[in-house]
Amino acid sequence: MISAARCQVRFLPALAGFRGEAAVRAFVQGEWCWIRWPEDRSDVLTALRPILGVEFYEFRAPHWYPAGKRLPSELRPPDGDGESLARLMFPGSFSIAAVEDSELPRLPLELVRGGSIQPATALECDFEALAAWAETATTAELRSIRAAVSGSRVLLLGTKPPTIPGAERFWGKDVFLPVGFRIVPELPLPILRRAIGANSDEYAFIRPNGIELVAMAAFDPLTRAGLHMAVRA
């Protein structure tokens, strides 16, 4: 039974599917290598057949014979256990060196128009405009909104913020951009938050004229009673 083959090392990837097979062994000799496998593993033989110039061998004690030949070969697989295919096909061991502290070039962030269409999740409006909307809003609509008030300005957060004339709408989560704008370069949220100096307990609102950081604790559920109290104040 054929249980060995000789081929050029560059064709070893043809056996990538057997990297986890401990019984399939390789012996590298310069640009050539020998492959050994148990006689009952016909699948290894099948994988090797398409390789250009591959030579097959079978063992008939005490000699190795080229497949289908009656005379023994002068070539024979080396003795020993050889190496696993996984070791030959994966890179050798490596070490990770710590990067020395150095001044890295600064990469500017730009707010530009475009990008995919994103639903609004926040808006900024005048307090009077919010109060006028709240007069006709349902209780469910009010409960879906959280608000932070600063003087006559109000920031609202919600998956479906109301439609209020003159309001500026934003999209995002934790970091908010004006609807219709995107950040260049596009960065993962944790890296973007770090780049703009936002703490984990702050929302960031990025506008063409600057960045505003607002404490998350400043936002409270919107209620009709709370609005009435704010109007009287």
Total number of strands: 16
Q: Helix and strand string, N-terminal first?
A: EEEHEEEHEEHHEEEEEHEEEH
| Euclidean distance between termini CA atoms | 96 Å
Helix content: 10-25%
Oligomer: single chain
Structural category is alpha+beta
Shape: rod-shaped
Strand content: 25-35%
Largest sheet: 8 strands, mixed
* Poorly predicted runs of 5 or more residues: none
As a whole number of angstroms, the C-alpha radius of gyration is 35 Å
Keywords:
alpha+beta; 233 residues; 8-stranded mixed sheet; 18% helix; 2 domains
Describe the structure.
The model has no long low-confidence stretch (mean pLDDT 87). The longest helix has 9 residues, at 224-232. The chain has helices at residues 42-48, 85-89, 127-134, 139-143, 189-196, 224-232; strands spanning 2-8, 25-29, 32-36, 55-60, 63-66, 83-84, 110-113, 122-126, 146-150, 153-157, 168-173, 175-178, 181-184, 202-207, 210-215, 220-221. The strands form 3 sheets. Strands 15-14-12-11-8-10-9-16 form an 8-stranded mixed β-sheet. Strands 5-4-1-3-2-6 form a 6-stranded antiparallel β-sheet. With 233 residues, it is an alpha+beta fold. It is rod-shaped and about 105 Å long. The protein has 2 domains: 2-89; 110-232, no CATH class. It has 6 helices and 16 strands.
